[in-house]
Please model this.
Amino acid sequence: MQSKISISNLNFHYGKEQALHDITLEIPERQVVAFIGPSGCGKSTFLRTLNRMNDTIPIAKVDGTVLIDGNDIYAPNTDVVALRRKVGMVFQKSNPFPKSIFENVAYGIRINQMYENKANLEQKVEKALRDSALWNEVKDRLNTSAFGLSGGQQQRLCIARALAVQPEVILMDEPASALDPIATQKIEELIVELKKQYTIVIVTHNMQQAARVSDRTAFFMLGKLVEYNATQKMFTNPDEKLTEDYITGRFG
Amino acid sequence: MEHRIIDQQLDLLRDKLLLLGGMTEKALHRAMQSLMERDSDLARQVLEEDKIINQMELEIDRLSVEILALQQPAAHDLRFVISVAKITPILERIADHATNIADAAIRINDEPQLKSYIDLPAMANNAAEMLRTALDAFTTEDAALSREIIKQDQKIDASYKRVFNELIEIMIDNPSTTASAAQLLFVAKHLERIGDYVKDICELNVYLREAAFIKHSPKI
Model:
């Protein structure tokens, strides 16, 4: 299995506080990798190092390497805007722009000048909405406000917005934690569908969700990677006692 | 370690399985005793108590499903529930074989006694001992002991062949014994099958401990 993202000896500090300790991990191409662990274990921080979202925090300091397709994303000559186009992100709370459904998806295509004419732009918007399994629900109301959509639809709109700029990796930070079971199921089905084309990394507190959608699971605790294994192995017979205790709810 | 809601249910599941195991051991012991001592009343008790064993199987099935659905166990907890759910029908089938032995006893007890039961008592002792040890190995999750018990099944298989040949000879030498000897052949076959079932339990003990499926594998 070819590696899409290769992380070695990654350390991360918020000021004097070390949030990640010496993380080394390979993320295979076109697979879903889930990060699990208790609150504050560093999994979201780690996710955000993969498209340099932590750059916006002035006291943050990263050392170690993160290679995507063999290129060091922390190299001085990295185009961070291009990186974030390639490594899209979906957050816990859906955050559509205060615009129409169409404009939400078209936004990234427009600012990156990724279209030739109006018809081509419309095609791209439609494709992104189809890929996010939203098209049939919104095709007749593309020009209405995105805020009129349900929570689950808004989240899929955010996924469509991420897909519109043709990323290769999608990072998801608890994408379904604010959704009801039906909307959650749609997002999970979408994740499984999307992995045919994209490499997906998902942070989740819902262990059943990690078990359902991911190929590999990484368990973090106190900023350290405790175990990284095939999901099937992780949930039936983990190698580490700590992992077993966490996934069976034995933590005091 | 924090006390978890699931622990209470897993303990209950273990208790129920061990109770079923105890009842199964008792059924086998009494069935053989009813045969050896020509005690048809005791044999009828075995038949009667099999109904309780069947009910216990259903109870364990229900509890296993409930734990899977409501507690969503993972890792060792999951393997434990799966092992119990798979060992339960095996125990129930062992008890069915004991019932069949008791049935044979009732039939034979009306016939004149054969000169000897040859290897049958030893075979039954082996089977009972294997069953008892297998249940101990389940309780202590002892994979090494379980592998040892699996090997012992060969002894029962060898006894079965010997008993089979001897009974055929008895039938040839004295055709009037055929009805009784045929019943004893069935008894021997039931004991041989019990040995196989105990082997299955031991394979599940290994799964519980090591998450490895050794069934249908040349390596044990």
Notes: Helices of chain B lie at 5-36, 40-71, 75-108, 120-140, 143-173, 178-210. Chain B has six helices and no strands.
